[in-house]
Amino acid sequence: MNENRKRIGVLDSGVGGLTVVKELERQLPHEDIVYFGDNKHCPYGNRTADNIVEIARSTIGFLREQGIKAVVVACNTTSSLLPRFQAEYPFPIFGIIGPVARAVARRGLPAVGVIATELTIRTGAYERLIHENDPSIAVYSEPSHNLAALVDCGEFDLDAIRAEVKGHLDHMLTAYPLGHVLYGCTHYPIVSEVFEQAAPGVEFINPACAQVAAAAEYLRSNNLLNDTGGGRFDIYMSGSAPVYQAVLERLAIKTPAVIHSV
Question: Catalytic residue at 185?
Fold first, then answer.
């Protein structure tokens, strides 16, 4: 198969990675996408690092069989462990943390908050990668045990989601004077309006924008772009198809998706 015609693989712990697909659709509209949503093991952030690496290898192996030219790791928790498996594959693997860390540094922000799963926070990946680019930026972290799983259920108007978001933001913003907060989990932008209502004076940063820009630049530089046709989108998931359909509609993803159960 022509390398340009191969697909971009996307992996996530559930429906959250569809926020990255939304950005792929915007920046790389001609690319074909194959997505794996591992709802069965969601949330990854409450698992061990060794278990996450094992799951990542299995998922990337599955995507490789679909004919891919690159992998975009939507899951922040998996991205925080990327150095443990990234070099094992002949195609590029793009994590979600490194690109936004560079973007934050380029903006010269004095401080930034990160709300993410517990394991993502424990790895220290956001703080480490931001400080590799600019050690003067203060990074304040807020771990969430439940929010990703609540969003993954597909009921976006739950009082529990609003209470969880408000509790985390109140705790973070009372302790630290922050004007910018990173969504450290791809599930969170699905309920972005809940965050914005809870903290109207804060700019929330979606790392998917910088991640997809990095992938697009690599594909362009290596003559791997598919710049005609495209638009094939397969979702393989271990969860509930109606949840995926609900998120596709909520995010206004236009590319028709074929949903497969695995």
Answer: yes
